[in-house]
Structures are given as structure tokens and as C-alpha cells.
Automatic annotation (TrEMBL):
It comes from Kumtagia ephedrae. One of its GO terms (biological process) is isopentenyl diphosphate biosynthetic process, methylerythritol 4-phosphate pathway. It comes from the Bacteria. This is 4-hydroxy-3-methylbut-2-en-1-yl diphosphate synthase (flavodoxin). Gene3D superfamilies: Dihydropteroate synthase-like, Sulfite Reductase Hemoprotein, domain 1. HAMAP family: IspG. Binds 1 [4Fe-4S] cluster. NCBIfam families: ispG_gcpE (TIGR00612), PRK00366.1 (NF001540). Its cofactor is [4Fe-4S] cluster. Pathway: Isoprenoid biosynthesis; isopentenyl diphosphate biosynthesis via DXP pathway; isopentenyl diphosphate from 1-deoxy-D-xylulose 5-phosphate: step 5/6. It catalyses: (2E)-4-hydroxy-3-methylbut-2-enyl diphosphate + oxidized [flavodoxin] + H2O + 2 H(+) = 2-C-methyl-D-erythritol 2,4-cyclic diphosphate + reduced [flavodoxin]. Pfam families: GcpE (PF04551), GcpE_C (PF26540).
Amino acid sequence: MTGYQSSPLPRRRSVGVDVGGVTVGGGAPVVVQSMTNTDTADVDGTVAQVAALAKAGSEIVRITVDRDESAAAVPRIRERLERLGLDVPLVGDFHYIGHKLLADHPACAEALAKYRINPGNVGFKEKKDRQFGAIVETAIRYGKPVRIGVNWGSLDQELLTALMDENQAAGAPLTADEVTREAIVRSALLSAQAAEEIGLPRDRIILSAKVSRVQDLVAVYTALAGRSDHALHLGLTEAGMGSKGIVASSAAMGILLQQGIGDTIRVSLTPEPNGDRTREVQVAQELLQTMGFRQFVPVVAACPGCGRTTSTVFQELAQNIQADLRRNMPLWRDKYPGVEELKVAVMGCIVNGPGESKHADIGISLPGTGETPSAPVFIDGRKAATLRGADIAAEFEKMVADYIEARFGQGGRQAAE
């Protein structure tokens, strides 16, 4: 797994699940996953987006399988990705007719690394148990794990009604929200129990319970974690767009992760029109990295700016360095093992600039308003150079590249050994 950083925080003990070579739960690092928004029947478009998500760092990618054309496309997508050298596991997202699609398209059932079932719409009334069982039996036949994904937007209404009636008969000790939360948790647990009774091993079951309000998510997963040792997939559904979606997802999942709850996460951002789908991967990585659970890309420390930093030089340099590091990481992960641990500082004035730069592996303290037009550069805690003139930014970027080669390149690794 990429750049796992041991955390001193205790993790909830869960059963490990192998999803196409990626371990979810069982003490493994928290896994980042995402989902395409292409028409899966569009092989070219889906391959391109899966590849982009995988290169951005998504360790599992979910795709919609909603009709015959999309099911027929799955093995072709898998084959194309393998030709590109991408072995990222693909998860099939099934609703309503998943049992039929898996039965009619065995190549799809084989090509997928995991099936996602929503117990709220896998079937209704007398068909529910039969169709749920058919998907589980297919998973058993092909040796695939299953995510039982409850969503409050499509919650099993029979179960919810029964629990509401029970609560009313008991004098309504619980609020409607509390009963709904219990229905979500119970739907996941009962479905997992049913899958195990059919014969699906416990180490092939992942549970999720998606809601769209922060406090509901915290309450539901806290209850679920306390009543089960299944691996858990975290995500705030319908989180929203832009900063709203980022803040809501980070707040909800941050609380749970801090409590040791969660084995794999997805940040469900609504993209801007024609926006970059990989943004949700970047946010998930940054959440885990900020909390100290994983390390994906080098850290760039930069000051927020104040009246001492009226120039935009340090802002532009920090932006360029960060963009360059993230852009190169897909190649650098193999070429420079350990480079994700790098710490760079780009500071804007003398107040905290030298000190912060000394704490980084390589850092620069740019001149603030009214300061001497020079920029000391610190490498491994020691002053290594002083840059001046119009090319400070370009010179520092080159120094960062040289430092990466010297420390993480083959020569640097041999010297360390």
C-alpha cells in the first residue's frame, strides 16, 4: 500500500477483506476509493476515467452496472485497463436487477473484484430474499466479496415501518430520526447475517451505511462499529459541491476515523460541470494525510500571508511546487520510493520563515514587504544557499528536484544503505 504511516491511535478490530489484491480492514491502511460518473457502456470514456482516478491514487474504483450494455462492457474495460498496466480493482454497483445482470453476463461477474448490493432496492416483497440470495450465490461461485451498502435515500421501507410501529407501541421513546438510524444499522446487520447464512464468508463482506447529514453519519457508524466486526466503508452520501461537500465529508469522517472507525473511504463530491472527477480522490488522500493515517504526496507548508507579505511570489511558488509534486507522483512513486515523506516549506517573510524552513527537509524563506531582497534556503535543517534576483522561484524549484534525486534516487538510497 502507498506510504502507510503508522498512527498511534487505536483502530477498531475488523475482519480483513481482499478486494482484487487490496486489503480492506484487518488492520490494513485505510483504503481510498472513488466512483466513475461515465456511462459504463461507453468503454473508451470509462477506461479513461478509471485510469485517471487510479493514477490520482484511487485504490479501488466503482462503476455503475445498470443494464445489459454496461454489464457487457465490464470485461472489455477490465481488459483495456490491464493493457494499460492498471490493475485497480473494479467494483460493480448494482441496483434493482443486479441478480439478472450477473446471471446473464458471467464474464462481467468474473471481471469485477467486488459487488455492491443495496438491500433497499435489491428486490421488493417476496422477490427480495430470492434476488438478494442470487447475487450472494454468484459472489460465492466466483469468489468475490460483497459490499452491503445501505442508503437512507433507499432504505428498506418494510423494515423502517416495522420499527416505527414498534416504537409507537412502546410509547414512542425514540424520535423518528433515531428510529431511522436504527433501521439503517439493522438493515446492514440483517443483510450481512443473511449473506453468511447463504454461505458467503465473513471475510468477503464489507458494510456501509450512507446518510447525508454529519451527525447522522457519526451516530450510525458508531452504532454499527459497536455491533459488528465487519470491515466498514465510510462516506457521506450526497455531500454536495465544492467547499460544502469537502467540509461536510471531512468533518463526518474525521470524527469516525479519529475513533478508529473506518477501513475504506470515499468522498462523494458533486463535481462542477465538466469538472475533474479526481478531485474526490485528492480530498480523501488529504483527509487521511492531514490526520496522520497515510502519506500520499510530499507536504508543502506555506504561510497564510499577512500585511508583511504583500507580494504574491510565495503564493505562486507554493502553488507551483504543490502542483508539480502532485503531477509527478504517479511516476515518482516507483522512481523515488519514499518521496511521499518529503516536507517542503515555502514561507513569505522573516517572522516564521527561517524556523519553518529548518523544520522541513528543504525550505525557502522569501523576503517579505520591506525586507532585504534575498531568500535563504535550508536543506535538512541547515542553511544551504541564499537566492536573489528575478529567478528565485525557478532556482528553488530546481533545488527541490535535485534534492529529490539526491535523497530518493538510486544513488541516495544506496548511500543510505
